[in-house]
Amino acid sequence: MASLFFLFLLLLAVVVRPRRVRIPLKGRHVLVSGGSSGIGFAIARRAAAEGARVSILARDPDRLHDARDAIRRDTGVDAAALAADVRDPRRRRPCP
Q1: Cα separation of 64 and 48, whole Å?
Q2: Cα–Cα distance list, 74 to 47, 83, 88 (Å)
Q3: What InterPro entries would the database entry show (predicted)?
Q4: I need a surface site. Which of 37, 43, 48, 88 has the fewest CB within 10 A?
């Protein structure tokens, strides 16, 4: 009985296993919150490298400028940068 249950689980795992989805980014616009550092920055840089128009959003304008410059240097894409605290909609402002 246990071996039949194990066989069923094995079959189920093969049939229902998640498949990797690849969404083409070329020509699309990608908005990345937390895009000035860490995972957000890596995602923004990768999206730009794949041909997306990129906007990064973060709280610190100085780090945003550095991230925007790094994306431009690494990929040739001019990323838009917006300094904002997503917790407070009144504090949104564009980076010069």
Answers
A1: 15
A2: 12, 21, 32
A3: NAD(P)-bd_dom_sf (IPR036291), SDR_fam (IPR002347)
A4: 88
